[in-house]
């Protein structure tokens, strides 16, 4: 069953009244947060971000006190995290972290956000240019530990991701690539979905860095087939089209990433504005620049290198 096939009964059942208390489905209670979390994930993966917003609004409408519930705050944290809002996600998860039922998973997510607030592709080289993570001895120890972990968890996609990241940090790219290619055709499941997507994104990063655009495109299409709201996948596609000087196509992909990030990610806004400038969509370009500068008044270069050039082109 596809994502839409899962989402429709989720949508229909989440807000309907149970026929009897004895036979009520977990999806029939508006404050059943396990169901809500699942519906949010399905909505995002199916590309229906507006549906995800609707689910959270309806939870409050059905129960005005939901905003203090740990389950609701966990779900809100997920939504903010998917939207590229790490600070808002941390605040929501923090309100859930002392709860017996939701606290452990909220804490795990908080740790991941703190370690990787910008949701970088750890080990990747194309889009992310972070600092060097630890010294060589630490990286080597991490790689050996990860390899032992993989031997114990042969069929685990999560283990593949951990070891591939360790190889990348050790600059052992061929080993990482060989490992990641093992999961290209791995059966997709909702339980493995996040790990698979991160593996595929890292593999796409490797292909792009090796100028293998066709293979990268194939992997990125696979990602979007399973998660139509993958901001990083759209950003990669924009990067590829920009390299090919297909600026209209690049702008379209960056625009998808920009909207999915709720127009709050200045780096994506900059790339979108640049490609809009290159394809002569000058008024759209200026509008994006204004939006970035409104949120980040000191964001470097966007005014001088893009907005001022767009204005000059309009006047000439």
TrEMBL record:
Residues 137-311 form the Tetratricopeptide repeat protein 21A/21B C-terminal ARM domain. InterPro entries: ARM_TT21_5th (IPR056835), ARM_TT21_C (IPR056834), TPR-like_helical_dom_sf (IPR011990), TTC21A/TTC21B (IPR040364). It holds the Pfam family ARM_TT21_5th. One of its GO terms (biological process) is protein localization to cilium. One of its GO terms (cellular component) is cilium. Residues 29-115 form the Tetratricopeptide repeat protein 21A/21B fifth ARM repeats domain. PANTHER family: STI2 PROTEIN-RELATED, TETRATRICOPEPTIDE REPEAT PROTEIN 21 HOMOLOG. This is TPR_REGION domain-containing protein. It comes from Heligmosomoides polygyrus (Parasitic roundworm). The lineage of its organism: Eukaryota, Metazoa, Ecdysozoa, Nematoda, Chromadorea.
